[in-house]
Amino acid sequence: MKATVFKVGMLVEHPNRPEWGVGKVSGVEEDRLHIFFKGNLEKKAKVILRSIISLTVAEDQTDPVLDSLPEASQEDGGWVLPKNYEKKMAAAAKLAAVG
Q: What 8-state DSSP symbol labels residue 85?
């Protein structure tokens, strides 16, 4: 079976956590992915070990909330959103609810 090639910006789904919804890849390493999940959005990206969890590529590669995420930066070995992301996320969630 061919391994999926994950890229920054790609939207994915976690097979064991459907309540997290779709996630956006912010960092790719050999053995792990750093992902912000729409249904469990936190300041720091979740780290998914590729050897344990087989993520799937989301059928739809666009999402109004994830598409409007501010750019994350690397900090202490992980990926984090800027300090003002809460305001931007609240505005994006409101926009998604309307559209």
A: H
**What predicted TM-score, i.e. pTM, was given to this entire model?**
0.84
- For 51, other C-beta atoms within 10 Å of its C-beta total 7
Sign of CA dihedral 75, 43, 40, 63: negative
| β-strands 73-75, 56-57 pairing | unpaired
Judge contact between 15 and 54, C-beta under 8 A.
yes
Using DSSP's 3-state secondary structure scheme, residue 27 falls into: strand
Q: How many CB atoms lie within 10 A of CB 38?
A: 20
CA 66, chain centre distance (Å): 7
Q: What is the pLDDT of residues 40-72, one digit of tens each?
A: 888 899 999 999 999 999 999 999 989 988 889
Question: Considering all CA atoms of the chain, what is the largest pairwise distance in Å, rounded to the nearest integer?
Answer: 42
Measuring CA to CA, which residue among 29, 86, 89 is closest to residue 63? 89
